[in-house]
Every structure is written in C-alpha cells, then in structure tokens.
Design brief:
The complex is a heterodimer of chains A (244) and B (218). Chain A is an all-alpha fold and 244 residues long. Chain A is 79% helix and 0% strand. The longest helix of chain A is centred in the last third of the chain and has 47 residues. Chain A is globular. Helices cover 79% and strands 0% of the residues of chain B. Chain B has one domain. In chain B, helix 2 packs antiparallel against helix 3 and helix 3 packs antiparallel against helix 6. Chain B has ten helices and no strands. The chains are: A mainly alpha (244), B mainly alpha (218).
C-alpha cells in the first residue's frame, strides 16, 4: 500500500465499525438536502418546467445502479477466485440494489418522458440497455434465490452469470445503438446546454444522497444475507452432530 | 489432442443416441414456423421483410429448447463428474459439447432453410446465409450451453434458461436478423452486422471456455 493511503486505513476501519451510527443519519440528512434542493433551491427550468426536477433523482439513481452492478461484477470475480461466500452475500445484495434502482430509473424516466417526449417509452439505445440490465440482474436474483443462501455451487453459477452479464453490457449497448440507426429517431434528443451552478450543486447533492442510500441498503442487505448463510450452516452443522 | 478428439467423439455419439430428442427439436422448429405463418400471415404479400425474424426466433427458441437438456443426462448419470476428474481440461469438455450441439442444430437449421425455401418461394440456401447461420448458432449455443450447466441442478431449469439467456442474446439476435436481411437484399443499414455476429460468437465461446471450468469445479 502506498504511503499516501496509509493514514486512511484506520479511518476506513473506524467508519466500518460505526456504519450503523454513520450511514442512517448521513443518508437522512443528504436525502432531505436533495428534496429541499430539487424542489425549492433549484431554479425552474425554462423549457421543460417543473417536471425537469425529476432529473435530480433520475441521474443519481442510474449512476448508483451502474455502481451497484460494478460491485456485483467485482464481488462475483472474487467469489470465483477466492471461493469466499461473504462475497456472494455482497454480490447478491448489490444486485438487489441495482435492480431496484434500474426500476426507479425506468419509472422516473417514464414520468419525465410523457410530458417532454409525449411518450412513456422510446426505443432508444440507453433506454433499452437499462431495461435489459433490469432483466439480466433480475434473472440473476431469480436463479440465485432458487438455491439455499449457503449453497456454494449455486453461488458460483450465479457469479459466472453475473460476470457474463456485465461483459455483455457494451455489446448490448452497441448493438441497440446500431439497431436504432436504421429507423429515424421519432424524438430528437436535445443537446443539454451547460447546467447553471445551482442545478449542478443540487445534482451533486443528489449523487451523494443516492450513493449513500445505495450503500446503506447494500450493507444492510449484505449483512442479512451473511446472517442467513451462517444460520443455515450452523443448522447443518447441528444436524450433522446430532446424527452421530 | 487425442483426449480432446475422444471427448468430441463421445459427444457426437451422445447426440446420435439422443436422436429422438433432436428430432423433437426439429419438429418443434417446424411447428413454430407454421405458427408464424398463420400468426403473421406470411402467405399473402411480401414475406421477405419478416423472414429473417421468423427464422432467427425459431432457431433461437429451438436452440434454447435443445440446450436445456445439454448436460441433463450427463449430470443424472454422473458422466459430467467423471469427465471433470479425467485428465481432459474442463474447457475441452465445454467446447466439445458446444461443437456437437452446433452440428446437430445446424442440420435442423439447414433443413428449415430448405423447408422455408419451398414454402415461401425465396432462395435461402446460399453460402452467405449458411455462414451467417453457422456463426450465429456458434454464438448462441456457447452461451446457452454455459447457462444450461447452471440450471442442471435446479427443478425449474426449463423455465430459467430462457429467462437468463434471452436478454444476453439480444446483440446476437439483432446482428443475425440484420445480417440475414442484408443477405436477402433487405435494407439493413450500414452497421457491420456480420462483424457484430462474429464478435459475439468469439466473445461467448471464449467466455464460456474460460468460465465453464470455474462454474462446474467442485
């Protein structure tokens, strides 16, 4: 480890130890700041009007879901490499957060799309990719939940699927973009002019708030997963001993 | 090398012994082409714009139908475990399975192309189309074969394979349909569809060969 990072190690340990004292209040304050910022502080957008305010949730949520899927990928690689079931709990919880957040992205996008584009849904590469991400990681959660939480074989299968799914994202995005070029786009995506400072600040607050929320949900879910893994293993151990 | 050849021979023999299963796959594919004919009324009007989609969804569903059984017998009879402790690399076990499935599916697909040529009066047996079908099949079979190992222990495997495979196969489907359309002189845009198909096939067989050993090792 580099000398530069060394002073942060105790800080990280301290932060992890106090995660239950830190995450809920920090997330709460940041979320309140986001709501106040998005509804009151941010100026009214000249063209789109009030509905543009959903953007302060929409963009952070999709950013957080990409982050969550990256965590799924990394944790799945570690599951395959180290065969450590703790990382299966991390991958599974990150996938849950990612699926939830892609669903929120699709819903908030549709709410924004109806008044601005005139349609709830458009067959555009970014939208299709988001929908497919939702389906792929939903499938991951389905297949993983068919086996017991402490089933190592099932964890490895799910990890393989997660790795394949993550590597497929660029191919999906590229192919859907090419697919769309055949039909002229019904809706022309307006180039967004540079955001004014107030909007940028609210967006930044939103990114922090939603990332904190994702982190909190992830940690909460991962520890629950870990506990059910341990409960099942203890029960199996108990059955084994009583059988002797 | 000899061991790899032995594995391939074994898989081809398994395909031959399971010929009733493959015949069922072929019958399913034929029945689904008929279903499309009535659903989209392929008889009146120009059939060509719809033909690539009809052919590829049929190939894909038949392939998934067949792949869900790929390792079934071997898991049940303990052959897969025996193969994995034999001195053959697990990647070879995987690639031999893909190769034998591709060969069996190719027979079904070419037969369907002949059938569609007769039924819809459109020339479908060309070298270009056969190559597109070969590359596309190699692409989706590698992925479904890898995923079918995942389901072989689960009770609801017949259901889970399409749920997992179809979203991942979207790039392959788009590339295959457009490339087939281009081969039939339909407007297909300027994107390099055949390249997409080749990249997908290379990607999925490589990923399968690398990840299969990790998925099955005990």
């Amino acid at each position: 480890m580099s000398a530069l990072a060394r002073p942060f190690v105790p800080l990280a340990y301290w932060g992890f130890e106090h995660r239950w004292q830190l995450l809920p209040p920090l997330t709460g304050v940041a979320m309140l700041a986001l709501i106040a910022g998005a509804l009151i502080a941010a100026p009214r957008e000249a063209v789109e009007g009030e509905v543009q305010r959903i953007f302060y949730i929409h963009l952070p949520v999709i950013a957080a879901s990409y982050l969550a899927f990256t965590v799924v990928f990394v944790a799945s690689v570690v599951v395959l490499w180290k065969r450590d079931m703790r990382w299966d709990a991390v991958a599974r919880s990150a996938a849950t957060v990612g699926v939830l957040f892609t669903a929120l992205t699709l819903v908030t996008g549709a709410i924004w799309g109806k008044p601005i584009w005139g349609v709830w849904w458009a067959w555009e590469a970014r939208l299709i990719t988001t929908l497919l991400l939702f389906l792929i990681y939903g499938g991951y959660l389905l297949v993983r939940s068919m086996a017991a939480p402490n089933d190592e074989q099932a964890a490895r299968y799910a990890a393989v699927f997660a790795v394949i799914g993550f590597l497929d994202i660029p191919l999906i995005h590229m192919s859907t973009r090419w697919w769309r070029t055949l039909h002229p786009d019904a809706i022309v995506l307006r180039a967004r002019p540079a955001l004014p400072v107030e909007m940028l600040v609210v967006l930044l607050v939103g990114l922090i708030a939603v990332t904190l929320l994702a982190l909190w949900l992830l940690v909460l879910r991962a520890e629950t997963e870990r506990m059910s893994q341990r409960t099942l293993s203890l029960r199996a151990e108990l059955d084994r001993r009583e059988g002797i | 090398m000899n061991a790899a050849l032995a594995v391939i021979r074994k898989d081809l023999r398994v395909v031959w012994r399971d010929r009733v299963g493959w015949l069922t796959t072929g019958a399913f594919a034929t029945a689904s082409v008929l279903t499309y004919t009535f659903a989209f009324d392929l008889v009146s009007g120009d059939v060509r714009p719809l033909l690539p989609g009809v052919l590829w969804t049929t190939f894909l569903f038949a392939g998934i139908f067949a792949s869900s059984q790929a390792f079934q017998r071997e898991v049940e009879q303990g052959t897969l475990d025996a193969m994995l402790i034999s001195p053959v690399p697990a990647s070879v076990v995987f690639l031999a399975k893909v190769l034998s499935s591709v060969m069996a599916l190719l027979v079904i697909e070419v037969a369907l192309l002949v059938l569609a040529t007769i039924l819809f009066d459109t020339t479908l047996i060309t070298l270009e189309l056969t190559l597109i079908v070969l590359v596309g099949t190699a692409g989706y079979v590698s992925l479904t074969t890898l995923l079918s190992t995942m389901g072989s222990q689960l009770n609801s495997r017949a259901m889970i394979l399409p749920v997992l495979a179809l979203p991942l196969l979207v790039p392959m489907l788009i590339g295959a349909v457009r490339a087939t359309g281009a081969a039939l002189d339909l407007p297909a845009g300027t994107a390099p569809w055949t390249l997409l198909l080749v990249v997908f096939a290379a990607w999925s067989s490589l990923a399968g060969a690398l990840l299969f050993p990790l998925a099955v090792e005990r």
